[in-house]
Write a structure and sequence with these properties.
With 226 residues, the protein is mostly helical. 78% of the residues lie in helices and 0% in strands. The protein has a single domain (8-225), classed as CDP-alcohol phosphotransferase transmembrane (TM) domain (Four Helix Bundle (Hemerythrin (Met), subunit A)). The longest helix is centred in the last third of the chain and has 32 residues, at 194-225.
Amino acid sequence: MGTRVVDWDEYATRWAALHGGFDPRRAGTVVRGWLRTAYRIGATLGRWRVTPTAVTVAGLLCCAGVPVTATAAPTGLFAGAALVLLAAVADSVDGAVALATDRASRLGYVYDSTADRLGEACWLAAFWVVGVPVPLVVAAGGLTWLHEYVRARAVAAGMTEIGTVTVGERPSRVIVTVLALLAGGAAGLVQHDLAAGTMTVLLAVWVLLAVFGLAQLLRAVRTILR
């Protein structure tokens, strides 16, 4: 007999409580559709007694495979893009499993956040493997870490709201990484050396989004906590 899962309305209420009161039932079509899809997948896995931690680990393993596939550039970059997409799905589904089956925990939240940072480090390692300049890779990683650190410290200081959804959030990193891997793979098929240059340009976009996103976040934190 499978595990009992909550319905969509109760799930949405629980999700809103963990995301600053933002109700997914009132979100735009794309966001609502994405979250509802994550709920359906999470509910199904929950009935099969798949744990949230198992989904988190699966997503992290997908991320770990990205730099490995990058060693087989340019064709391997297409597989890397697919792995990033799978990891992004797992990142949404692990929380969905936890909420749908009433297994959300503070420890699970820590595991999930840690897996996200490790996963992004794997993506950046793929850029490095292909030949993107190390300083740019380090800048992207550092700014990403700082963005998440500021939000975490603000929450620890008493910020109970989301504050703001910035242009440098994790979905933006997923999109940029997938586009970089696909574009790098396509360019590399034309001329092998073009893969690194193409991915360098897109990682620069990551850095710019991270800079603007950090500025947005700092402004929101200052307003809320002042």
